[in-house]
């Protein structure tokens, strides 16, 4: 049997191999990104070891003076980035931020409206029967926004009709959560906010995916379009550590603060909080350029894939206004099988349920779609010019059925020119270097 020390060495080796694997692959998972070396430093600082429950200045533990100062800077930077009166940076993930929003604005048994998973919603907004957080954890009754499959977006008129009908039947919607995991175009927050508010519905927006694009000023700004509250992850298009945040207005500050602590976090992982502060400073300095490049690159990628023969969603709508590009791959197989084939070629993507999949009997384990996100490759320095090459790798593997192991060699060669993290205060740092401290 291996000794604990041998197991430790094996673990270290696995981590190192993982980093090497990513250094040679094309990372296109839409919910991921890479952090800068400055953020990495924060993650291994002493903040990692500490506790600081509560709000800065009102902590339950001693020893927090520097932690308080860092957290206040994080709050201030996030308020500037999202032009928000109030921000809470303590949620430790996007789901945690959503649970805090539900806690602040609803009671168990209330009704919430969101997109179904097939139409782009996230499991944290899901019904109880699917184990979704809103239903199974918070006891909310979930009703779905109506969806227009042509326009790949929430159907404004049909949603209004549905809310009127529910109201007549005595079902009062308490919270409407826009946003989602599959999001190609801005949601109709502007178009629906006044209507929703006339029914006393709190307007929420889950910006887990698009928070970096909102901060960079290239995507809809939910709080300016009528949303009362916006939850987010800070590690998808927002290139910080894995964490969450909530942005809102002063009038809701007390109820959100109380929902976050003591509601959903006690200690809130101070090293990633510090990392978020640094990432927010980077976002303030480089976010506009980065976010504009992300959207331009995603559009170019959609077009390149389309030109190679793929069924890319949104052909008549410019493919995308976010970091995401979505393909229906059923001409060539199913999403899960194609995900695994691409992985063999060093192309990392995730399968995704498409809007019409439930109708054609497809399930999330092997759905009809592939979701792609360009935010991480943009952080590595790629842009619209590289997208034809990346799309050609897809064609070789999926359409031409070339040996993925052979394609993998080409992918690794191509990746050699894209090893550094861009849009940071520090230049020249290797994105996937395994940092050895001993
Ligand atoms: C719309 C949406 N909300 C919430 C989450 C959960 O975020 P986290 O993984 O930070 O908890 C995701 C994750 O991908 C998401 O897509």
Q: Please, what is the average pLDDT?
A: 97
The CATH homologous superfamily of the domain at 40-281 is called Type I PLP-dependent aspartate aminotransferase-like (Major domain)
Largest beta sheet: what is the strand line-up?
2-10-9-8-7-3-4
Based on CA inertia axes, which overall geometry fits? Answer: globular
- Low-pLDDT parts are none
Taken as a percent bin, the fraction of beta residues is: 5-15%
Supply Rg.
22 Å
User: What ligand molecules are bound, each kind once?
Assistant: pyridoxal-5'-phosphate
Report the total helices. Answer: 14
List descriptors.
Aspartate Aminotransferase, domain 2, alpha/beta, four-stranded antiparallel sheet, 438 residues, 15 strands, seven-stranded mixed sheet, binds pyridoxal-5'-phosphate, 14 helices
Textual characterization of the structure:
The chain has 438 residues and is α/β, with parallel strands linked by helices. It has a domain of 242 residues: 3-Layer(aba) Sandwich (Aspartate Aminotransferase, domain 2). 41% of the residues lie in helices and 13% in strands. The chain contains 14 helices and 15 strands. Helix 13 runs antiparallel to helix 14. The mean pLDDT is 97. The structure holds pyridoxal-5'-phosphate. Pyridoxal-5'-phosphate binds next to helix 4.
Describe how the helices and strands are arranged.
Layout: H1 4-23, E1 26-27, H2 37-43, H3 65-81, E2 86-88, H4 94-105, E3 111-114, H5 133-137, E4 141-144, E5 147-148, E6 153-154, H6 156-168, E7 173-179, H7 189-198, E8 202-206, H8 211-215, E9 229-233, E10 244-248, H9 253-264, H10 270-307, E11 311-312, E12 324-328, H11 335-344, E13 347-348, E14 350-352, E15 369-373, H12 375-379, H13 387-399, H14 404-415
Parallel strand pairs: 1-13, 3-4, 3-7, 7-8, 8-9
Antiparallel strand pairs: 2-10, 5-6, 9-10, 11-12, 12-15, 14-15
Helix pairs in contact: 2-10, 3-10, 4-9, 10-13, 13-14
